[in-house]
Structures are given as structure tokens and as C-alpha cells.
Amino acid sequence: MVANLDKIMKPKSIAVIGASTKEHTIGSDIMKRLQEYKFNGNIYPVNPKGGIIEGLQAYTNVLEIPGEVDLAIIVVNAKFVLDTIDQCHEKGIKGLCIITAGFKETGKEGAEAEKQLLAKVKEYGMRCVGPNCLGVVNTLPEVRMDGCFAESLPERGHIGFVSQSGALGGGILNILKDLNLGFAQFISIGNQADVNAETAIEYWENEKDVEQILLYMESIQNPANFRELATRVTKKKPILALKAGRSAAGASAASSHTGSLAGADKAAAALLKQSGVIREFSLENLFATAKVFANCPIPKGDRVAIITNSGGPGIMATDAVCEYGMQMAKITDETKEKLRSFLPSAASVKNPIDMIASAPIEHYKQTLETVIADENVDMIICIYLPFLGLKDIDVAKALMEIKAANPQKPVIGVFMTTSEFFAKLSDMDVNMPFFMYSEQAADGLNRLNQQRLWMERPEGKIPCYDVDRAKVESIIKGALKEDRAQLTTLESIDVLQAYGIRACKYGLATNEEEVVNLGNSIGYPVVMKMTSKTTSHKTDVGGVVVNIKSEEQLRKEYKGLLSRLEEKGLLEGLEGVIIQEMVKGSREMVCGIATDPQYGPMMMFGLGGVFVEVMKDVTFRIAPLTDVDASEMIKSVKAYKLLEGARGTTPAQMDQIQETLLRLSQLVSDYKFIDELDINPLLISEATGEGIAVDGRIKVRMEEARKALGCAESCACGCC
Amino acid sequence: MVANLDKIMKPKSIAVIGASTKEHTIGSDIMKRLQEYKFNGNIYPVNPKGGIIEGLQAYTNVLEIPGEVDLAIIVVNAKFVLDTIDQCHEKGIKGLCIITAGFKETGKEGAEAEKQLLAKVKEYGMRCVGPNCLGVVNTLPEVRMDGCFAESLPERGHIGFVSQSGALGGGILNILKDLNLGFAQFISIGNQADVNAETAIEYWENEKDVEQILLYMESIQNPANFRELATRVTKKKPILALKAGRSAAGASAASSHTGSLAGADKAAAALLKQSGVIREFSLENLFATAKVFANCPIPKGDRVAIITNSGGPGIMATDAVCEYGMQMAKITDETKEKLRSFLPSAASVKNPIDMIASAPIEHYKQTLETVIADENVDMIICIYLPFLGLKDIDVAKALMEIKAANPQKPVIGVFMTTSEFFAKLSDMDVNMPFFMYSEQAADGLNRLNQQRLWMERPEGKIPCYDVDRAKVESIIKGALKEDRAQLTTLESIDVLQAYGIRACKYGLATNEEEVVNLGNSIGYPVVMKMTSKTTSHKTDVGGVVVNIKSEEQLRKEYKGLLSRLEEKGLLEGLEGVIIQEMVKGSREMVCGIATDPQYGPMMMFGLGGVFVEVMKDVTFRIAPLTDVDASEMIKSVKAYKLLEGARGTTPAQMDQIQETLLRLSQLVSDYKFIDELDINPLLISEATGEGIAVDGRIKVRMEEARKALGCAESCACGCC
User: Which among B9, B194, B17, B10 is positioned nearest to B91, based on CA atoms?
Assistant: First the structure.
């Protein structure tokens, strides 16, 4: 079922249940706002005392309302909410916006009440915003609903805005007004019992009036669903998100604040990136980016031209453009010639184009017009510093005139002038964004470019490889039978191989003769690794010996290991030793899986060996991966240069490494009970460039695994 | 001589040479500004036509002025400037501010004129601001000089501001006015023929009226002098700098703009850091930080308390505080109890302290007062979101009242309200900074904390070790004699050892018997390394063989090397092989020196081996290093964790590594002609934790070296 919030967001009639005549109460404010903003339909105040509220006849009960009601805005005390919902149902109301607080956010009892509330909403086939929210707004002229109690009346525009924090949502509406940043619809989702950010995204997907979506989130309710929706919608319109609760301390504040579990930030970061959501880290940047998207087309490339009347800000803009990795456009000779024909000789016609301080309005117009026409230019920053006798607002108007005639490329104005200028602008219709500082303009262009790259990015596929599930299941069942969550190295490598992951040749030996036979059959040099049910960090006990070159050396090393283990009292757990093909290579990568309690299995890839924890050159993505995700993971770490073959090493087989990640992704998607999985190192073979799993560790969540594999917990008979 | 700019910055009388009656010219504007701002002294317009200018009698020549003149502001055409200076000298004027453009920035001819200008200034014992500048301002009531042509009149305050860009300087003055950020003195240094940023810093060092210094720079003229001055002054008052021209493209724009060579950004970054200068990357941040320093004391620690009436911004502030590495203050039980006594039960008295949306002004006052008194709290962010019936400006006034009674700790207000609020504030006297967003407040606190840490940081000493200079000089002379800029590995290691740097035991052998003898005397295992005058990247030709365990193996490897080189035609340049003690260790660091053309020798330290270029985990400082610099370098790289002894390795001898850096610093300070020096790897011995130079490469600038060491270029007789 596609999310349809029309009854809530485009109602023809609204009942305000809990409307009040008492000043500075929500029940009074909501009534005032609906009327002040001239709601395009009937408003029915409901109050048990009846009377006249804001000039309208109040009904003592929703059932008394004569006409049909699409939306009930509920502001009654929490203890009356459930009964009110029953009455709304009786009246045939399908849309609810419950502003009343006192539910999940207050503790166990409140959570129970919220559960009942949701059950009723579902049972009655309603949709519900809230509880514990600020309300809803739609500025569409045919609707004109200001159903919230923020300080200021809404400004018309084309942003869809969802806020998880009520009070903050109100603050933001004020600021949007102040910034002349209009919006189409606003939903304060509050405790998001029913409607949440995902519902809004889905509802706005095909809503023409909403051209970009802004989210303030403290948690993501259903990450998989969010990912699917956002990935699709961001291809059509930008989604900008501020996800708070990044720090451990912040997350704990978030969880006490909204009563929802805040996900770890790494998982959130991965999810947003994979979904094409533009993540901002401050409201200031969120609004700045929204202003840019509201006034700019998506560019065709990343080549930026800078026009200025002062060197300094031109340099600062150049610095910022380059730091974002965008290109300084190479102005064509034709353009240069044209510019030279009217600019003074002291002007610079190279990019940044410096018209010098005395540039009159006419030069601004001609220069912008000429540069927009340059085929080497995708985006433009136009800088103005006050100069004797030139009025900032006149320059801005002149630029907008040129922009109106040439709407195809983004142009951002940087006007280092007074706030009075920006105040004037906010009373005007503008067709391009203006900022005070160069860096803000570069930041905006970077976001446009990011959206361009995302829209051009292939969608990617989640491949499905032919794998040996039976083998994997039998290995895991074997471990479960022994009550082990942790698979042995041998078992881990067998699982990987069953999923077609290239691991090195090996065998298990439990006595000296087996050891030597294996060594001889694999061929020297070999590696010897202990495998134990009790010791998981093998290197700490000298349990790994490499480059064993002969039968004689192998015998010696095996004996040495046994005596070391005996000395430390660790001989007991020893299962045997793995004799393994020695893969020669100096480049150690790592890949693996961590499970985020909220976001599920998360894949990691990066530089391995002893550097994993020190350098932290790793990247994360939520599973399952698409082929594009996997390819991006590989390219996004610094160690990618090593894979490419730095300093004369064999270039790695990127396709094969990508496939390794995809097969791993399939493994953890098939068996969601896998809690941890590490391949460290994934050694890059110097001979072939293959990534070869040389070591593996897998840990499962036993209870879940038993359930999934159909083993009874008490089963000790070997049936599974 | 201590910089004294009193004649320019605190003149008792000013001649405006080139004063004009023509509207919108600099000669007219300067006259207007001086009078509008009520300059506290005599103003003498000078114009060859005489007449009345801005109501004052104009003199046709500066010599006609009846009284004494301290400062001449010169706005005449460039071709008259030199003569004007002569006349000023004749008149006995000691201070010049040359606004006129047309000098160094226009090319060779202009540069020549500027040279002559400077020669006159020096000869006459004058000080001169400019040419090609915007002017000078001093807002001190006893002076009241607005000697520049920015759009708006100055705002009184305690910032000293230097701008290298004239137009930008004007823009900034407008913005400062707009932000209600007053300043004490402003110097537009323009082409900085005489007075530059360093002069201003020195002049302001003991100027009480200047409490913080702001710099806009595109280049640093004399890095060593800047470093010495700034290091001293930043211990007394903060210096904030925006250094533009960071990107290659930006730097090229900077160099065409100001006619000065822009230094590489890495060197500038190191210099500013070592000097305790707070570097900002945008004007927006520069002003925000200035606002914070203007209204906050330096805190005693980094523990931050957050007070809010809304959860969301509290979480965002927490995120930002933690991301800056500051601590969330642990509120004492006593404070919590006090807070609970008046806050509602739904409030949270843990940090962030959430008074909930309905908090009245009284709660803001009581909460702030209580939290300021908490001994666990060093700094405070106080957040306000609009709530029904509460006026933002009233809340701000209440907070400032509490702050006035408790000035000892920094308090920053975050008011997520409209720009009208900030406009109101700018007409008031404020005693704490207010921002719109949480992140800005956290950013401000972080800067305060940075200044605290710098002021607490020990000054550090540049040690002087007893070294063998004669040996170094003889080695380098030997190379020069052979016309080599690049020392051989052997020579390089000898140089390091002469400076007391721990390098591994070694010897040079040129035939098989020597090789074997050396191996036997050093003791196995050894490393064999080719040393060649033609091949510098030894690993690329298999020129390094490690872990040679016996005489037999050594013979074999030596023969192998010779045949490999022969095959590649590289046998010619082979000097021999170094047989070297094999230092066992897995941790490879790198240290070395690069020379920046403007900043001189720059030291590098970080993770070595094949990772240097891939991971770029390195840090830079300008030589010479103090002990504190060296210690900070070591701690600032990620690989520091490896040095501490990650995963069971031997902890490195930090003191010894620090000494290695300091000895290197002494080496390049003694021999400034050393162009490049690399120790890669500086291997951390697993046995002792020492950092041991296992390989070394040194390159000199031959011409300079010959000059410094007294070798004639033509010398081929072996005299040197």
C-alpha cells in the first residue's frame, strides 16, 4: 500500500478536539493559526464546554459536528486520547494529528498507552501523525493549513520538511521564515507511532509541490525500508538529512529525549550514503543547502567559474572549490577575448575572473552573461564587495535579470555586505541563492554536484551467487551442537569457501604425521596455524608460523608450538593445526561484518593487518550490498592506492575483490544470525593480484541460529 | 628596534595629500570620513588647486601647512608619490599611509617604483603603511581616526585587525559593524612595502586597547620573524588568522593578486600551529571566534555544561562538543539536587540539562546561576527555542544579568529565533556571545579551549647537542667535489651518526671478500643494501636483501644482486653494498626534511615504509623544533598508538625518538643548504624500543652548500 496522507495533509475540513479560549494554550493557538493562515475548508472547534472559540461555534463532542471531517487535530489531555480516537472513528474521521504528549516519551505506562493508540489507528484504518508533536502544515493555495503552533506563519515554497523533535521543528519553521525559505508541507512526527519519516518520503515521492525533502532525525525506525524508499526518491528529488545523536553522549541524550533507540552513527552514516541522502551536520548547513536546491538546477558537471570584483574573496572561493574536489573551469579563449573587450586592462580574465573593485553594474551583467555561455563552465559563483557608489541590491537585481534569461546553470551570489541586504532580499522574489561568504557558496555548489553524481550513479544490483548452503548449515549446526557461538578457524574458512570466497588451500592435521603429509601434498612453503576452541587470538600465543620451507622445518615448528601451548596451559583446547598454502603478498586488507542492533549486518572493508585499529582506514556499508556499493567501498579507502599497485606491486584483481565483498554480503543476508565475521588478512597475492582469505573468524548468535536452522535448543542427540 | 607606529596610528594631525572635492573619489571620501568620525586633531587637506575641501582650507603643498603633521595620507597619482614623500620629509612628517595603487601589484616597473619608495622611507626614518591599501583606523576616543574609505563608520571595540587585501578589508569592516563586533585599530597593509602583519603584531603586543588580533593574509613575509613574534604575543592575547591561498589554484590567484609569492599551505599550517595562532578557514568562522573572544574569559578547563529548553538542539550541541574532543561536564549531585528543587519532574538534570519547553525566564536564571557555580563545569552553552509567550530578548537579558554577576566562566547563548533578535542585540551592550545554532557555540568554546591549552603549553626549548660538524662538512665536501647533490646511503648514514642519530651498525664492501668479512664481524643476521650514485630507489631494483643468516647465504645474495644490476645495465653506478646490522622490528616510521622555498626547512614525522604516501599519516613543523614541538609531532600522528606498543609490541623510547627529531632539526638548522633528508624507515627496535635509522637519503643545494662550506665552484684540486 502506497502511503496516502491526503486526509491529514490535504483535508477539506478539520476538527480541533481540545480547542480552547484560554490564551497561550495549544488549543487556542492552533485555532488561531488555522484561521490566520486562512484554511481553505471548514474548521470545527470541539470542547466539552461548547461556546464560541475564535469566533466559531464549538461542539461539545466530535459526533455533533454536522459535516464530514477529514482530519482531527487532537490536543486533549493524554488520558482522553484513546476515547477521542474511538469517537473520531464513529464520526468516520480517517486522519489524526495527535499533538498531546504523555506517551512513549514518559516511560513504560505511556508506551503501553501508545501501543493501544496505534492498535486503534490500525483497526480503524486511520493514519495518524504524533502523538507528542507540533502539528502539520500545508502551504498549497488550495489547502492553506497551518495546523501547528510554531511562532510564525508559514512561508510558501517547495520544501517538504519532517521533524522528529517538536520544539526544534517550531524553531526551524521560524528560521525558515526568517531565511525566506518557503516550504510546501511540514510534518512534526513526534513519537512517530504511525506516520514517520519513511511515510512522509513515500507520500512526497510523487507530490509535485514538494521539490526537495528535509529531515531532522534522531533515529531511523526501519532502516531497510528507509533505504529502499530513499534510494528511489533521491533519484527524483534531493533528500537532505540532519541526523543528530552522533556522539555516544549525544546518542544517550537522544534516547532519553525521544524514547527511541538511537542507532550507532557509523551505521546511520553508511545507510544515508547508500541511499543518496545528503547528510548535513548542522542546521545552518541544512538550510543553506536547501536554499541552494530551491534556486538552482542540477549542474551538468563540476567545473566552477568565479567572478569577483575583489581578489581576496576570489582566492577564498577558489580554495573552497578545490578543497571540495571540484574543478576550476578553464575559461575558453573565446570567452577571454569577449571579456577583454569590455573589462579594463587591470582585470584578470583567467578563472577566478577579477573585474577589479571599480566594476560597474554593466560589467557584472556582461561578465555573467559571457561566462554562463562558456561551454567549459558548469556552475558560477559571483562575488560582490561594496564599492563606492554601487548599491548591493542593484547589483543583485542585475545578476538575477541575467540569471532569469539564462536559467540553465547554477549561479550563486556572494555579497559581502550588511545583513540589511539580506533582509531586503527576503522580501523579494529571488531566482538565485545569495550568501555572505565564499565558503558557503562553494559548499552549496558541492551539494549540487553531489546530487548530480548520485543521479548519474548507476542503480546497482544485488547479485545472487550459486553457493553451497547445505555445507554452511551443517558446519554451523555442528558448532551449535557443541554450544559454540564462535566457529573455529577451520570451520570459518570452510564457510567462506562454501560461499565461493577464495581462501587459501589448507587442511587440518592433529598429529605430526598428518602435519607432514599435508605439508608435502600442499607444497612448500606453507603456513602452520593452530585452531582452538578456547583461544581466538592466535598470534598472541605464537600460534601462527609462516614461511615453513621444508618437511624438517615443519616438524620442528609443530613440536615447538605444542610445547609453548603446554607451558601456558592452553594445550587442552587445541583442535589441531591448519597447514595452509603460503600466499605471498605484502598487502593485507580486511573485510568483515559487524552487526548493528538497529541497522542489522554492516560490511566493512579496508586496510588490514596490525593497521586496522591504528589507521582506521576502513569503510562501512549496510548489507546487502549492490555491485556499485561494493565497488565504491573498495575505491573509498586510502589503501586503494596499494591495491592499484603502488611501488611496483601487482595490481589487485578489483573485480575479484568486489565479488568477495558481494559474496560475503550474500552470506550475512542469508544467515542474519551471523554476529561477527572477520577476514583479516585478505591477502593480495603478489603472484595473481587475487584477494585471498588467509584467516577467518565467524561468530553467530546462537539462539537465533538455532531458530533459523531448526535446531531445538535442547537438542543434543545429533539430529541437527 | 620595537615597532612604533604611533605617528601613523595615534597622530595628532593628519595631512590628506590628494584631498578632493569630487564626489565618490578616495580623496573626497577620506576627508569625509575623518570629519564624520570626528578625528581628535587637525586635518589638513592638500591639493595643488587649493580652495575649500569639506569645509577646510586646502593647502597647495604640504610644506605650506602651518602646524606640525604626524601622518600623511597619500592618495595622489602613483607618479607623484615619490616626490610627495620627499616633501613630507622636508615637512618633518614621520608617518605615511599611501593609499595610491600602481606599484608592485602592476608588474616590474611598479615593483621598481616601490623599491625606491621603500628606500626613501628608510632613508628618512619614516614608517609607511601601503602602498595600494585602504587606509588606517583607530577608534580610541582620544584618537578617533577613520582614515580609510570603507562604506561604514567604525564600531568601537578591542580587536586589532590587519588585512592584506584592501577591498576585502573594506568588506570586512562593513560586516564587523553589522555583527556589532567593534575594533580598536585597523591597518590595511596593501603591498606591505614597510609595515606588514608582523609590524602590527609587534606594535599591538603591549597596546592595552587591542585585546585580540585578527589577520587576513595571503602570504607571510618573514616566516621566522612572524613565528618569533606570534609565539610570544599569543601567550598574552589571541591571534586569529585567515590565511587564503591554500589550494594550488588559490595560491596562484593569490600570487597574481598581490604580487607576492604565496607559500605552500603545509608550511603555513605548521608555522601558524607552532606560533599558537588560531587558524580559521572562513571569514564567517573568523568573526564568530572573534565574537567569542570579545565576550568570554579563557576557561579553566574543557568541561562543558549544556542548558536547554528543547532536546534536539541539546543533542546537536552534545554531538559538536564531543566531536571537538571536549568533555561533557559531570554535574555534581549537589547541583542536580538544587536543579530538581525548582525544575519540573519531566526536566532532565543530567548534562545536557533539559528544562523542557515550558521553562519560564525564572528557570533560565536559576539554572544558569546554579550551573555556573558547579565546580565540575568550565564552560556553558545556554539554548533557547521560542516558546509560547516567552520573548527571546527578555530571556537574553535575564541570562546576561546572571552572567554579569558571575563573569568567571564562558557562557554562550544559542537562540534559535529570528534575525530580528540578533538585530536587536546589535544595538545593545552585550556581555556574552549569542549564536543561532548549537554548532557555532561549540565551535566557539573549542577555540577558547584551544587558547587555554596554548597558554598552558610550556614554551619549549631548542636544545643544542654536541655534534661532529667537521665530519659532516668533510662528507658533504666530498660529494660536492664529485658534483653530486645527492649523498650516497653510506654518506647519509655517516652524516646522521655524526649528529648523534642512532643508525644501525654497518660497513661498506666493494667485493665479495669484503662483504663476507663485514658480515662476519657485524654478526648475522644482516641486511645487504646496494649503494649507488645513479639509482636512488633501491627497492625497485631488488637492491635490499634482509635477514641474511649465514656467510653462505650472504655470498649467494651478493652474487645475485650483481647479476640483476648487470641485466638492467645499472652495474656501472654501483659503489658497493652496505652490510648492516639487522634491526628486528615491524614498526616503520619516517622522518625527514623538505624545504619550502619561503618557509625554509620543514620537518616531517609519521608512519613510514610503503604506507608513507598512501596513508599520509605524517605531520609537519617548521625547523628549528623546540622539545615541545617534537613531542607534539610524535603524539599527533595516528601511528603514535603503534609506538605506544599496540598488540603486544615493545613500547618505543619516546624520548629517544624525540631526540632524533631534535638532532635532525639541529642538522638542518646548521646546514640550511640541505634540501631533502629522509630517514625511511626509522625502525622501532623490537628489542629495545629505540628508533633506529636503517636507511637515509640526503640531498643538498650545491651552490649554496659550496658557498656555505667555502668551496670555490671551480675547485677540482681537492682543496676542500
Answer: B17
**Which among A172, A216, A244 is the nearest to B319, CB-wise?**
A244
Yes or no: say if A674 and A668 are a contact pair by the CB < 8 Å rule: yes
For residues A75 and A16, the answer to whether their CB atoms sit within 8 Å is yes
Give me A676's grid cell.
561477527
Instruction: Return d(Cα B54, Cα B316) in angstroms, integer.
Output: 54
Q: In the block, which residue shows the cell 556574552?
A: B432
B477–chain A nearest CA distance, Å: 33
Torsion on CA atoms B666, B671, B672, B677, rounded to nearest 10: -70
From B99's Cα to the closest Cα of chain A, the distance in A is 14
Whether the model pTM is above 0.90? no
Q: Which amino acid would we find at residue B524? A: Y
C-alpha cell at A414: 556572494
- How close is the nearest chain B Cα to the Cα of A587, in Å? 10
User: Residue B590 forms beta bridges with which residues?
Assistant: B606
The sign of the torsion formed by the CA atoms of B191, B193, B198, B204 equals negative
* Residue of B503, B529, B516 lying closest to B656 (CA atoms): B503
Cα(A71)–Cα(A127) distance, rounded to whole angstroms?
Answer: 10
* Per-residue model confidence (pLDDT) at position B134: 92
Contact B247, A323 (CB under 8 A): yes
Mutate to test the interface with A, among B316, B350, B417 (most CBs of A within 10 A): B316
Q: Domains, chain B, ranges and CATH?
A: 6-292 (3.40.50.261), 297-456 (3.40.50.261), 469-581 (3.30.1490.20), 587-707 (3.30.470.20)
Widest distance between CA atoms in chain A:
102
Phi and psi (nearest 5°) for B561?
A: -60, -45
Hunting for cell 533519484 — which residue is that? Answer: A235
| Residue B620 DSSP SS3 | strand
Summary mean pLDDT of chain A? 90
- Which cell is B15 given? 595631512
Residues of A in contact with B281 (CB under 8 A): 319, 439
Gap between the Cα atoms of B134 and B129, Å rounded: 10
Cα of first residue to Cα of last residue in chain B, in angstroms, is 40
As given in the structure block, the three cell numbers for residue A472 are 554452511
Q: Reduced to 3 states, what is the DSSP secondary structure of residue A479?
A: helix
Report ipTM for this prediction: 0.86
CA closest to A315 among chain B residues: B250
Instruction: Give the nearest chain A residue to B101 (CA atoms).
Output: A346
Nearest partner of B358 among A206, A166, A541, judged by Cα: A166
Burial A562-588 (b: 16+ CB within 10 A, else e): eeebeeeebeeebbbbbbbbbbebebb
- The distance of A634 to chain B (nearest Cα, Å) reads 14
**Amino acid (one-letter) located at A524:** Y
pLDDT tens across B243-261, in order? Answer: 887 776 555 554 433 333 3
- Pick the closest to residue B258 from B116, B128, B130, B98 (CA basis): B130
Contacts of A646 in chain B (CB under 8 A): 610, 613-614
Query: d(Cα A42, Cα B228) in Å, to the nearest integer?
Result: 75
Which pLDDT tens digit goes with each residue over A286-331?
Answer: 999 999 999 999 999 999 999 999 888 999 999 999 999 999 999 9
Check A312 against B218: CB less than 8 A apart: yes
